[in-house]
Amino acid sequence: MIIYNPKDWFLSVFQFHKADTFRKLFPLLIIMALYSWGIIYMELDYLMLGEKSHAKNIILMHTLLGFAISMLLVFRTNTAYDRWWEGRKLWGALINNSRNFAIKLEAYLPADNESSRNYFRQAIPMYAFTLKWHLQKDSTRLALDDIPHPEFEYLAKAIHQPNMLASAMMQRLQQLHKDEQLSATSMLLLNAEWQSLTDICGACERIKNTPIPYSYSSFIKKFIVIYVATLPFGLAFTLGLYAIPVTTFIFYVLASLELIAEEIEEPFGTDTNDLPMQRMAENIQKNINEIIK
Question: pTM for the full model?
Answer without folding.
Answer: 0.81
